[in-house]
Amino acid sequence: MDASIGPVERRRTFAIISHPDAGKTTLTEKLLLLGGAIQLAGEVKGKRDRRQTRSDWMNIERERGISVVTSVMTFEYGGTIFNLLDTPGHEDFSEDTYRTLTAVDSAVMVIDAAKGIEDRTRKLFEVCRLRDIPIVTFVNKLDRESRDPFDLLDEIEKTLALETAPMTWPIGRGRDFAGTYDIVNRTVRRLDLENEVTKVSGPEDPIIDTLTRPEAVALFREEMELIAGAANGFDRDAFREGHLTPVYFGSALRNFGVRDLIDAMAAYAPPPRPQQAESRLVEPDEAKMSGFVFKIQANMDPNHRDRIAFLRVCSGRLERGMKAKLVRTGKPIPLSSPQFFFAQDRLLADEAFAGDVVGIPNHGTLRIGDTLTEGENLVFRGVPSFAPEILRRIRLQDPMKAKKLKEALQQMAEEGVVQVFVPHDGSPAIVGVVGALQLDVLKERMQAEYSLPIDFETSRFSVCRWISSDDKLALETFIERHRGSMAADLDGAPVFMAPSAFELRYELDRAPAITASEIKDYQRRAAA
Ligand code: G4P
Predict the structure, then answer these.
(1) Is residue 287's pLDDT more than 50?
(2) Would the pLDDT of 300 be above 70?
Protein backbone atom coordinates (compact mmCIF):
# COMPACT_ATOMS: atom_id res chain seq x y z
CA MET A 1 0.00 0.00 0.00
CA ASP A 2 1.09 3.54 -0.75
CA ALA A 3 3.09 4.97 2.16
CA SER A 4 1.39 8.32 1.79
CA ILE A 5 -1.90 6.80 2.92
CA GLY A 6 -2.67 7.99 6.40
CA PRO A 7 -3.10 5.76 9.44
CA VAL A 8 -6.89 6.00 9.41
CA GLU A 9 -7.22 5.18 5.72
CA ARG A 10 -5.25 1.98 6.10
CA ARG A 11 -7.37 0.55 8.87
CA ARG A 12 -10.24 -1.91 8.53
CA THR A 13 -12.22 -2.78 11.62
CA PHE A 14 -14.59 -5.66 11.06
CA ALA A 15 -16.35 -8.68 12.50
CA ILE A 16 -17.29 -12.04 11.08
CA ILE A 17 -20.94 -12.96 11.29
CA SER A 18 -22.13 -16.49 10.76
CA HIS A 19 -24.20 -19.35 12.07
CA PRO A 20 -22.30 -21.73 14.38
CA ASP A 21 -20.29 -24.28 12.38
CA ALA A 22 -20.24 -22.30 9.15
CA GLY A 23 -16.49 -21.91 9.57
CA LYS A 24 -15.89 -18.63 11.36
CA THR A 25 -13.14 -20.00 13.56
CA THR A 26 -11.39 -21.71 10.69
CA LEU A 27 -11.58 -18.56 8.60
CA THR A 28 -10.31 -16.40 11.46
CA GLU A 29 -7.38 -18.73 11.83
CA LYS A 30 -6.54 -18.51 8.15
CA LEU A 31 -6.83 -14.72 8.15
CA LEU A 32 -4.45 -14.53 11.07
CA LEU A 33 -2.08 -16.89 9.32
CA LEU A 34 -2.08 -14.74 6.20
CA GLY A 35 -1.46 -11.71 8.35
CA GLY A 36 1.46 -13.43 10.02
CA ALA A 37 -0.18 -13.04 13.41
CA ILE A 38 0.13 -16.75 14.03
CA GLN A 39 2.49 -19.34 12.68
CA LEU A 40 0.44 -22.47 12.86
CA ALA A 41 -3.10 -23.27 12.06
CA GLY A 42 -5.19 -24.38 14.97
CA GLU A 43 -4.26 -21.67 17.38
CA VAL A 44 -7.31 -19.49 17.39
CA LYS A 45 -9.95 -21.42 19.17
CA GLY A 46 -8.90 -24.97 19.68
CA LYS A 47 -11.77 -27.34 19.67
CA ARG A 48 -11.46 -30.68 21.37
CA ASP A 49 -7.77 -31.52 21.66
CA ARG A 50 -6.26 -28.33 20.32
CA ARG A 51 -7.18 -26.05 23.11
CA GLN A 52 -4.17 -24.01 24.13
CA THR A 53 -5.51 -20.77 22.88
CA ARG A 54 -6.05 -17.15 23.57
CA SER A 55 -9.66 -17.45 24.59
CA ASP A 56 -8.96 -20.50 26.62
CA TRP A 57 -9.58 -18.79 29.90
CA MET A 58 -12.76 -20.13 31.19
CA ASN A 59 -13.81 -23.64 31.99
CA ILE A 60 -17.28 -23.14 30.72
CA GLU A 61 -15.98 -22.24 27.33
CA ARG A 62 -13.78 -25.29 27.20
CA GLU A 63 -16.61 -27.55 28.22
CA ARG A 64 -19.00 -26.22 25.69
CA GLY A 65 -16.51 -25.64 22.95
CA ILE A 66 -17.85 -22.21 22.21
CA SER A 67 -16.29 -18.84 22.32
CA VAL A 68 -18.08 -17.02 25.11
CA VAL A 69 -15.99 -13.91 25.15
CA THR A 70 -15.61 -11.18 22.64
CA SER A 71 -12.17 -9.93 21.88
CA VAL A 72 -10.13 -8.34 19.21
CA MET A 73 -7.31 -9.52 16.99
CA THR A 74 -5.09 -7.16 15.08
CA PHE A 75 -3.05 -8.18 12.05
CA GLU A 76 -1.47 -6.59 9.04
CA TYR A 77 -1.72 -7.71 5.46
CA GLY A 78 -0.39 -5.91 2.41
CA GLY A 79 0.01 -2.65 4.31
CA THR A 80 -3.54 -2.68 5.66
CA ILE A 81 -4.13 -2.99 9.38
CA PHE A 82 -7.05 -5.21 10.21
CA ASN A 83 -8.82 -5.18 13.53
CA LEU A 84 -10.99 -8.28 13.69
CA LEU A 85 -13.53 -8.18 16.47
CA ASP A 86 -14.62 -11.61 17.54
CA THR A 87 -18.35 -11.98 18.02
CA PRO A 88 -19.51 -14.85 20.16
CA GLY A 89 -21.26 -17.42 18.04
CA HIS A 90 -23.72 -18.57 20.63
CA GLU A 91 -27.21 -17.25 20.45
CA ASP A 92 -27.32 -16.60 24.16
CA PHE A 93 -24.74 -13.92 23.90
CA SER A 94 -26.59 -11.65 21.62
CA GLU A 95 -26.14 -8.63 23.86
CA ASP A 96 -22.40 -8.85 23.70
CA THR A 97 -22.60 -9.37 19.99
CA TYR A 98 -24.75 -6.32 19.45
CA ARG A 99 -22.30 -4.22 21.38
CA THR A 100 -19.40 -5.56 19.38
CA LEU A 101 -21.16 -4.73 16.14
CA THR A 102 -21.42 -1.10 17.28
CA ALA A 103 -17.62 -0.99 17.09
CA VAL A 104 -17.06 -2.27 13.54
CA ASP A 105 -17.11 -0.57 10.15
CA SER A 106 -17.79 -3.64 8.05
CA ALA A 107 -18.47 -7.35 8.37
CA VAL A 108 -17.72 -10.61 6.63
CA MET A 109 -20.70 -12.91 6.38
CA VAL A 110 -19.67 -16.55 6.24
CA ILE A 111 -22.18 -18.96 4.72
CA ASP A 112 -21.93 -22.73 4.61
CA ALA A 113 -22.30 -23.57 0.91
CA ALA A 114 -24.41 -26.62 1.74
CA LYS A 115 -26.73 -24.79 4.10
CA GLY A 116 -27.15 -21.23 2.89
CA ILE A 117 -28.53 -18.52 5.13
CA GLU A 118 -29.19 -19.89 8.58
CA ASP A 119 -31.08 -18.42 11.43
CA ARG A 120 -28.22 -16.88 13.37
CA THR A 121 -26.69 -15.33 10.28
CA ARG A 122 -29.96 -13.68 9.49
CA LYS A 123 -30.28 -12.21 12.98
CA LEU A 124 -26.75 -10.87 12.99
CA PHE A 125 -27.28 -9.48 9.54
CA GLU A 126 -30.31 -7.56 10.80
CA VAL A 127 -28.13 -5.91 13.43
CA CYS A 128 -25.64 -4.93 10.75
CA ARG A 129 -28.44 -3.55 8.63
CA LEU A 130 -29.60 -1.29 11.46
CA ARG A 131 -26.27 0.42 11.22
CA ASP A 132 -25.83 0.09 7.43
CA ILE A 133 -22.68 -1.92 7.92
CA PRO A 134 -21.29 -3.05 4.55
CA ILE A 135 -21.05 -6.83 4.21
CA VAL A 136 -18.65 -8.96 2.21
CA THR A 137 -19.92 -12.52 1.75
CA PHE A 138 -17.73 -15.60 1.87
CA VAL A 139 -19.40 -18.81 0.74
CA ASN A 140 -17.46 -21.48 2.58
CA LYS A 141 -16.92 -25.24 2.32
CA LEU A 142 -16.87 -25.35 -1.47
CA ASP A 143 -14.65 -28.42 -1.14
CA ARG A 144 -17.75 -30.33 -0.07
CA GLU A 145 -21.02 -31.05 -1.78
CA SER A 146 -22.77 -27.73 -1.90
CA ARG A 147 -25.87 -26.08 -3.17
CA ASP A 148 -26.15 -24.44 -6.54
CA PRO A 149 -24.38 -21.06 -6.22
CA PHE A 150 -27.26 -19.30 -7.98
CA ASP A 151 -29.60 -20.70 -5.38
CA LEU A 152 -27.39 -19.31 -2.65
CA LEU A 153 -27.27 -15.86 -4.23
CA ASP A 154 -30.99 -15.97 -4.67
CA GLU A 155 -31.46 -16.87 -1.05
CA ILE A 156 -29.29 -13.96 0.10
CA GLU A 157 -31.30 -11.58 -2.06
CA LYS A 158 -34.65 -12.92 -0.93
CA THR A 159 -34.17 -13.59 2.77
CA LEU A 160 -31.90 -10.64 3.51
CA ALA A 161 -33.16 -8.23 0.87
CA LEU A 162 -29.53 -7.64 -0.02
CA GLU A 163 -28.33 -7.47 -3.59
CA THR A 164 -25.44 -9.75 -4.50
CA ALA A 165 -22.53 -9.24 -6.84
CA PRO A 166 -20.56 -12.46 -7.46
CA MET A 167 -16.87 -11.55 -7.62
CA THR A 168 -15.48 -15.05 -8.02
CA TRP A 169 -17.18 -18.21 -9.18
CA PRO A 170 -16.43 -21.86 -8.40
CA ILE A 171 -15.04 -24.06 -11.13
CA GLY A 172 -16.61 -27.40 -10.25
CA ARG A 173 -18.16 -28.26 -6.93
CA GLY A 174 -17.65 -30.87 -4.26
CA ARG A 175 -15.28 -33.47 -5.61
CA ASP A 176 -14.92 -31.61 -8.91
CA PHE A 177 -14.05 -28.32 -7.21
CA ALA A 178 -10.83 -27.15 -8.83
CA GLY A 179 -10.63 -23.49 -8.01
CA THR A 180 -12.31 -20.18 -8.67
CA TYR A 181 -12.61 -17.81 -11.56
CA ASP A 182 -12.28 -14.12 -10.78
CA ILE A 183 -15.09 -12.47 -12.72
CA VAL A 184 -13.73 -8.95 -12.42
CA ASN A 185 -10.05 -9.57 -13.14
CA ARG A 186 -10.38 -12.63 -15.39
CA THR A 187 -7.98 -14.77 -13.45
CA VAL A 188 -8.10 -18.31 -12.18
CA ARG A 189 -7.05 -19.44 -8.75
CA ARG A 190 -6.35 -23.16 -8.56
CA LEU A 191 -7.20 -25.21 -5.52
CA ASP A 192 -3.77 -26.83 -5.61
CA LEU A 193 -1.99 -23.51 -6.10
CA GLU A 194 -3.77 -21.27 -3.69
CA ASN A 195 -1.28 -18.44 -3.53
CA GLU A 196 -1.13 -17.72 -7.26
CA VAL A 197 -3.52 -16.50 -9.88
CA THR A 198 -3.31 -17.18 -13.61
CA LYS A 199 -4.48 -14.60 -16.11
CA VAL A 200 -6.95 -16.07 -18.60
CA SER A 201 -8.78 -14.70 -21.60
CA GLY A 202 -12.18 -15.48 -20.10
CA PRO A 203 -14.37 -18.43 -19.13
CA GLU A 204 -13.64 -20.08 -22.49
CA ASP A 205 -9.89 -20.15 -21.91
CA PRO A 206 -8.49 -23.66 -22.55
CA ILE A 207 -6.53 -23.52 -19.28
CA ILE A 208 -9.84 -24.04 -17.51
CA ASP A 209 -10.40 -27.29 -19.42
CA THR A 210 -7.33 -28.76 -17.78
CA LEU A 211 -8.58 -28.16 -14.26
CA THR A 212 -11.46 -30.55 -13.74
CA ARG A 213 -13.88 -32.94 -15.41
CA PRO A 214 -15.34 -31.74 -18.75
CA GLU A 215 -18.91 -31.86 -17.39
CA ALA A 216 -17.94 -29.57 -14.53
CA VAL A 217 -16.19 -27.16 -16.92
CA ALA A 218 -19.23 -27.14 -19.21
CA LEU A 219 -21.49 -26.34 -16.28
CA PHE A 220 -19.14 -23.57 -15.17
CA ARG A 221 -19.29 -22.00 -18.66
CA GLU A 222 -23.05 -22.16 -18.72
CA GLU A 223 -23.16 -20.44 -15.38
CA MET A 224 -20.77 -17.76 -16.55
CA GLU A 225 -23.09 -17.01 -19.46
CA LEU A 226 -25.96 -16.63 -17.07
CA ILE A 227 -23.89 -14.33 -14.90
CA ALA A 228 -22.88 -12.19 -17.84
CA GLY A 229 -26.54 -11.78 -18.65
CA ALA A 230 -28.16 -11.51 -15.26
CA ALA A 231 -25.87 -10.87 -12.29
CA ASN A 232 -25.21 -7.47 -10.80
CA GLY A 233 -21.84 -5.91 -11.27
CA PHE A 234 -20.07 -4.67 -8.18
CA ASP A 235 -21.17 -1.20 -7.20
CA ARG A 236 -18.97 0.32 -4.55
CA ASP A 237 -21.49 2.90 -3.40
CA ALA A 238 -24.27 0.36 -3.04
CA PHE A 239 -21.86 -1.83 -1.06
CA ARG A 240 -20.76 0.99 1.22
CA GLU A 241 -24.37 1.90 1.88
CA GLY A 242 -25.12 -1.69 2.86
CA HIS A 243 -27.40 -2.50 -0.09
CA LEU A 244 -25.16 -4.87 -2.00
CA THR A 245 -22.74 -7.58 -1.00
CA PRO A 246 -19.81 -8.80 -3.08
CA VAL A 247 -19.67 -12.60 -2.91
CA TYR A 248 -16.54 -14.75 -2.80
CA PHE A 249 -16.36 -18.53 -2.89
CA GLY A 250 -13.82 -20.66 -1.10
CA SER A 251 -12.89 -23.14 1.55
CA ALA A 252 -11.50 -21.90 4.82
CA LEU A 253 -10.39 -25.38 5.77
CA ARG A 254 -8.34 -25.73 2.59
CA ASN A 255 -7.17 -22.14 3.01
CA PHE A 256 -8.67 -21.39 -0.36
CA GLY A 257 -10.16 -18.08 -1.43
CA VAL A 258 -9.19 -16.42 1.83
CA ARG A 259 -6.72 -14.21 -0.01
CA ASP A 260 -9.48 -12.97 -2.33
CA LEU A 261 -11.53 -12.14 0.70
CA ILE A 262 -8.82 -10.23 2.49
CA ASP A 263 -7.84 -8.39 -0.69
CA ALA A 264 -11.48 -7.40 -1.07
CA MET A 265 -11.59 -6.13 2.49
CA ALA A 266 -8.49 -4.02 1.83
CA ALA A 267 -9.79 -2.73 -1.50
CA TYR A 268 -13.47 -2.16 -0.83
CA ALA A 269 -14.32 -2.24 2.89
CA PRO A 270 -14.53 1.25 4.34
CA PRO A 271 -11.89 2.72 6.60
CA PRO A 272 -13.08 3.89 10.04
CA ARG A 273 -16.35 5.72 9.69
CA PRO A 274 -17.42 8.94 11.38
CA GLN A 275 -19.19 8.20 14.66
CA GLN A 276 -22.35 9.81 15.88
CA ALA A 277 -22.09 11.45 19.28
CA GLU A 278 -25.04 13.08 21.01
CA SER A 279 -23.91 16.57 20.11
CA ARG A 280 -22.25 16.06 16.73
CA LEU A 281 -20.69 13.72 14.20
CA VAL A 282 -17.09 12.91 15.07
CA GLU A 283 -14.77 12.49 12.10
CA PRO A 284 -12.01 9.88 12.35
CA ASP A 285 -9.29 12.30 11.29
CA GLU A 286 -10.03 14.96 13.86
CA ALA A 287 -6.95 15.87 15.87
CA LYS A 288 -8.34 15.15 19.30
CA MET A 289 -8.67 11.61 20.59
CA SER A 290 -12.07 10.16 21.36
CA GLY A 291 -13.43 6.65 21.79
CA PHE A 292 -16.01 4.50 23.49
CA VAL A 293 -15.92 1.35 25.58
CA PHE A 294 -18.00 -1.45 24.06
CA LYS A 295 -16.79 -4.37 26.09
CA ILE A 296 -15.38 -5.13 29.51
CA GLN A 297 -13.64 -8.39 30.09
CA ALA A 298 -12.26 -9.75 33.31
CA ASN A 299 -9.85 -12.60 33.86
CA MET A 300 -8.40 -12.72 30.39
CA ASP A 301 -5.28 -14.02 31.94
CA PRO A 302 -5.95 -16.48 34.76
CA ASN A 303 -2.61 -15.54 36.36
CA HIS A 304 -3.47 -11.87 36.64
CA ARG A 305 -6.77 -10.87 37.92
CA ASP A 306 -7.23 -7.99 35.58
CA ARG A 307 -10.06 -6.27 33.95
CA ILE A 308 -9.81 -4.90 30.46
CA ALA A 309 -12.03 -2.28 28.91
CA PHE A 310 -12.08 -2.47 25.11
CA LEU A 311 -12.06 1.01 23.66
CA ARG A 312 -12.88 1.67 20.03
CA VAL A 313 -10.90 4.75 19.06
CA CYS A 314 -13.16 7.07 17.05
CA SER A 315 -10.85 9.98 16.30
CA GLY A 316 -7.42 11.45 16.85
CA ARG A 317 -4.38 9.69 18.19
CA LEU A 318 -4.37 7.76 21.41
CA GLU A 319 -0.93 7.94 22.91
CA ARG A 320 0.41 5.82 25.69
CA GLY A 321 0.83 7.91 28.81
CA MET A 322 -1.79 10.50 27.88
CA LYS A 323 -4.58 11.47 30.23
CA ALA A 324 -8.08 11.12 28.88
CA LYS A 325 -11.28 12.47 30.26
CA LEU A 326 -13.91 9.97 31.32
CA VAL A 327 -16.97 11.94 30.31
CA ARG A 328 -19.39 10.10 32.61
CA THR A 329 -17.56 11.28 35.72
CA GLY A 330 -15.67 14.24 34.31
CA LYS A 331 -12.49 12.83 35.84
CA PRO A 332 -9.18 12.29 34.09
CA ILE A 333 -7.97 8.76 33.57
CA PRO A 334 -4.34 8.00 32.74
CA LEU A 335 -3.80 5.71 29.77
CA SER A 336 -0.52 4.34 31.02
CA SER A 337 -0.70 0.87 29.50
CA PRO A 338 -3.15 0.59 26.64
CA GLN A 339 -2.78 -2.74 24.86
CA PHE A 340 -3.13 -4.24 21.42
CA PHE A 341 -4.22 -7.82 21.03
CA PHE A 342 -2.81 -10.26 18.58
CA ALA A 343 -3.63 -13.92 18.14
CA GLN A 344 -2.00 -14.89 21.41
CA ASP A 345 -0.10 -11.88 22.61
CA ARG A 346 -0.89 -8.55 24.01
CA LEU A 347 1.53 -5.71 23.46
CA LEU A 348 1.64 -2.22 24.87
CA ALA A 349 0.15 0.19 22.38
CA ASP A 350 2.32 3.27 22.01
CA GLU A 351 -0.19 4.90 19.76
CA ALA A 352 -3.54 4.04 18.25
CA PHE A 353 -5.79 5.67 15.68
CA ALA A 354 -9.44 5.73 14.72
CA GLY A 355 -10.64 2.21 14.05
CA ASP A 356 -8.20 0.64 16.50
CA VAL A 357 -9.40 -1.21 19.52
CA VAL A 358 -7.21 -0.95 22.57
CA GLY A 359 -7.55 -2.74 25.84
CA ILE A 360 -7.33 -0.52 28.89
CA PRO A 361 -6.58 -2.32 32.14
CA ASN A 362 -8.57 -0.85 35.02
CA HIS A 363 -10.10 -1.73 38.33
CA GLY A 364 -13.69 -0.97 37.60
CA THR A 365 -13.36 2.70 36.65
CA LEU A 366 -14.52 2.06 33.11
CA ARG A 367 -17.93 0.78 32.12
CA ILE A 368 -19.58 -0.34 28.94
CA GLY A 369 -20.68 2.68 26.97
CA ASP A 370 -18.18 5.08 28.53
CA THR A 371 -16.73 7.78 26.32
CA LEU A 372 -13.12 8.92 26.65
CA THR A 373 -12.00 12.21 25.12
CA GLU A 374 -9.26 14.79 25.34
CA GLY A 375 -11.59 17.15 27.16
CA GLU A 376 -14.75 17.57 25.10
CA ASN A 377 -17.99 16.36 26.65
CA LEU A 378 -18.82 13.94 23.87
CA VAL A 379 -21.17 11.06 24.39
CA PHE A 380 -21.20 8.39 21.71
CA ARG A 381 -24.47 6.76 20.90
CA GLY A 382 -25.51 3.24 20.46
CA VAL A 383 -24.04 0.76 22.89
CA PRO A 384 -27.38 -0.57 24.02
CA SER A 385 -28.60 -2.66 26.88
CA PHE A 386 -31.58 -4.97 26.30
CA ALA A 387 -34.39 -5.78 28.67
CA PRO A 388 -33.58 -9.24 29.97
CA GLU A 389 -35.79 -12.14 29.02
CA ILE A 390 -35.01 -14.22 32.09
CA LEU A 391 -35.17 -12.93 35.66
CA ARG A 392 -33.83 -14.94 38.59
CA ARG A 393 -33.28 -14.43 42.28
CA ILE A 394 -29.94 -15.42 43.63
CA ARG A 395 -29.71 -17.79 46.53
CA LEU A 396 -26.47 -17.61 48.43
CA GLN A 397 -25.35 -20.87 49.96
CA ASP A 398 -23.62 -18.97 52.74
CA PRO A 399 -25.90 -16.16 53.92
CA MET A 400 -23.01 -14.51 55.78
CA LYS A 401 -21.55 -13.44 52.48
CA ALA A 402 -24.34 -11.10 51.45
CA LYS A 403 -22.05 -8.06 51.30
CA LYS A 404 -19.51 -9.85 49.16
CA LEU A 405 -22.31 -10.98 46.89
CA LYS A 406 -23.46 -7.43 46.44
CA GLU A 407 -19.99 -6.28 45.42
CA ALA A 408 -19.51 -9.22 43.08
CA LEU A 409 -22.87 -8.66 41.41
CA GLN A 410 -22.10 -5.00 40.96
CA GLN A 411 -18.90 -5.94 39.14
CA MET A 412 -20.65 -8.50 36.96
CA ALA A 413 -23.26 -5.91 36.06
CA GLU A 414 -20.59 -3.34 35.20
CA GLU A 415 -18.96 -5.88 32.94
CA GLY A 416 -22.27 -6.56 31.24
CA VAL A 417 -22.26 -10.26 32.21
CA VAL A 418 -25.71 -9.90 33.74
CA GLN A 419 -27.97 -7.07 34.71
CA VAL A 420 -28.73 -6.58 38.36
CA PHE A 421 -31.95 -5.10 39.67
CA VAL A 422 -32.33 -4.08 43.28
CA PRO A 423 -36.01 -4.14 44.29
CA HIS A 424 -37.27 -0.97 45.94
CA ASP A 425 -38.93 -2.99 48.70
CA GLY A 426 -35.63 -4.30 50.02
CA SER A 427 -36.05 -7.89 48.85
CA PRO A 428 -32.97 -9.72 47.45
CA ALA A 429 -31.43 -8.62 44.17
CA ILE A 430 -32.73 -10.02 40.91
CA VAL A 431 -30.44 -10.82 38.02
CA GLY A 432 -31.59 -10.49 34.46
CA VAL A 433 -30.12 -12.14 31.38
CA VAL A 434 -30.99 -12.28 27.72
CA GLY A 435 -29.97 -15.94 27.36
CA ALA A 436 -29.79 -18.82 29.83
CA LEU A 437 -26.11 -19.52 29.24
CA GLN A 438 -25.30 -16.20 30.90
CA LEU A 439 -26.60 -17.66 34.15
CA ASP A 440 -24.12 -20.53 33.90
CA VAL A 441 -21.35 -18.05 33.24
CA LEU A 442 -22.37 -16.02 36.28
CA LYS A 443 -22.49 -19.07 38.54
CA GLU A 444 -19.12 -20.28 37.35
CA ARG A 445 -17.47 -16.91 37.73
CA MET A 446 -18.94 -16.28 41.16
CA GLN A 447 -17.41 -19.54 42.26
CA ALA A 448 -14.08 -19.15 40.49
CA GLU A 449 -13.42 -15.49 41.14
CA TYR A 450 -15.22 -14.75 44.38
CA SER A 451 -15.51 -18.21 45.99
CA LEU A 452 -19.22 -17.59 46.21
CA PRO A 453 -21.32 -20.65 45.50
CA ILE A 454 -24.72 -19.48 44.30
CA ASP A 455 -27.96 -20.96 43.03
CA PHE A 456 -30.86 -19.42 41.19
CA GLU A 457 -34.47 -19.33 42.23
CA THR A 458 -37.33 -18.34 40.05
CA SER A 459 -38.49 -14.83 40.65
CA ARG A 460 -42.14 -13.96 40.65
CA PHE A 461 -41.34 -11.56 37.83
CA SER A 462 -40.61 -12.61 34.30
CA VAL A 463 -40.47 -9.39 32.31
CA CYS A 464 -39.19 -5.90 32.94
CA ARG A 465 -38.88 -2.52 31.26
CA TRP A 466 -37.07 0.70 31.96
CA ILE A 467 -39.62 3.39 32.60
CA SER A 468 -39.49 7.13 32.19
CA SER A 469 -41.83 10.05 31.71
CA ASP A 470 -41.73 13.74 30.88
CA ASP A 471 -44.29 14.13 33.63
CA LYS A 472 -42.25 13.84 36.81
CA LEU A 473 -45.26 13.59 39.05
CA ALA A 474 -46.82 10.81 36.94
CA LEU A 475 -43.55 8.89 37.15
CA GLU A 476 -43.35 9.28 40.92
CA THR A 477 -46.96 8.24 41.33
CA PHE A 478 -46.45 5.16 39.14
CA ILE A 479 -43.34 4.17 41.09
CA GLU A 480 -45.09 4.68 44.41
CA ARG A 481 -48.16 2.75 43.34
CA HIS A 482 -46.09 -0.17 42.07
CA ARG A 483 -43.48 -0.17 44.78
CA GLY A 484 -43.53 -3.95 45.12
CA SER A 485 -42.76 -4.30 41.39
CA MET A 486 -40.10 -1.62 41.10
CA ALA A 487 -36.36 -2.03 41.10
CA ALA A 488 -33.28 0.07 40.39
CA ASP A 489 -30.69 -0.94 37.82
CA LEU A 490 -26.94 -0.43 38.10
CA ASP A 491 -27.33 3.32 37.73
CA GLY A 492 -30.40 3.66 39.87
CA ALA A 493 -32.70 4.00 36.86
CA PRO A 494 -36.26 2.80 37.59
CA VAL A 495 -37.25 -0.61 36.24
CA PHE A 496 -40.80 -1.93 36.30
CA MET A 497 -41.12 -5.69 36.65
CA ALA A 498 -44.19 -7.82 36.00
CA PRO A 499 -45.10 -11.51 36.34
CA SER A 500 -46.11 -11.76 32.68
CA ALA A 501 -46.16 -9.82 29.45
CA PHE A 502 -49.91 -9.57 29.85
CA GLU A 503 -49.70 -7.91 33.24
CA LEU A 504 -46.94 -5.65 32.05
CA ARG A 505 -49.10 -4.43 29.21
CA TYR A 506 -52.14 -4.13 31.46
CA GLU A 507 -50.37 -1.88 33.95
CA LEU A 508 -48.68 0.23 31.30
CA ASP A 509 -51.90 0.71 29.33
CA ARG A 510 -53.38 2.23 32.43
CA ALA A 511 -50.50 4.69 32.74
CA PRO A 512 -50.31 6.51 29.39
CA ALA A 513 -47.86 9.13 30.69
CA ILE A 514 -45.25 6.44 31.28
CA THR A 515 -42.84 5.39 28.56
CA ALA A 516 -41.58 1.84 28.86
CA SER A 517 -38.45 0.84 27.05
CA GLU A 518 -36.97 -2.50 26.09
CA ILE A 519 -33.63 -1.00 25.18
CA LYS A 520 -31.53 1.29 27.23
CA ASP A 521 -28.74 3.17 25.61
CA TYR A 522 -25.76 3.10 27.92
CA GLN A 523 -24.47 6.37 26.73
CA ARG A 524 -27.65 8.31 26.87
CA ARG A 525 -27.95 7.08 30.41
CA ALA A 526 -24.37 8.10 31.11
CA ALA A 527 -25.08 11.61 29.95
CA ALA A 528 -28.16 11.94 32.11
P1 G4P B 1 -17.58 -21.89 13.60
O2 G4P B 1 -16.45 -21.19 14.24
O3 G4P B 1 -18.32 -21.04 12.62
O4 G4P B 1 -18.49 -22.58 14.55
O5 G4P B 1 -16.99 -23.05 12.68
P6 G4P B 1 -15.59 -23.77 12.66
O7 G4P B 1 -14.57 -22.95 12.00
O8 G4P B 1 -15.28 -24.30 14.01
O9 G4P B 1 -15.93 -24.94 11.65
C10 G4P B 1 -16.96 -25.89 11.90
C11 G4P B 1 -16.58 -27.20 11.24
O12 G4P B 1 -16.55 -27.01 9.83
C13 G4P B 1 -15.22 -27.71 11.64
O14 G4P B 1 -15.27 -29.12 11.60
C15 G4P B 1 -14.33 -27.22 10.53
O16 G4P B 1 -13.17 -27.99 10.37
C17 G4P B 1 -15.27 -27.37 9.34
N18 G4P B 1 -14.91 -26.46 8.24
C19 G4P B 1 -14.64 -25.14 8.28
N20 G4P B 1 -14.37 -24.67 7.05
C21 G4P B 1 -14.47 -25.71 6.21
C22 G4P B 1 -14.30 -25.87 4.80
O23 G4P B 1 -13.98 -24.94 4.06
N24 G4P B 1 -14.49 -27.11 4.31
C25 G4P B 1 -14.83 -28.18 5.08
N26 G4P B 1 -14.99 -29.35 4.49
N27 G4P B 1 -14.98 -28.06 6.41
C28 G4P B 1 -14.82 -26.85 6.97
P29 G4P B 1 -15.44 -30.00 12.89
O30 G4P B 1 -15.30 -31.40 12.47
O31 G4P B 1 -16.68 -29.61 13.60
O32 G4P B 1 -14.30 -29.52 13.83
P33 G4P B 1 -12.74 -29.84 13.78
O34 G4P B 1 -12.61 -31.11 14.51
O35 G4P B 1 -12.35 -29.93 12.35
O36 G4P B 1 -12.14 -28.68 14.47
Answers:
(1) yes
(2) no
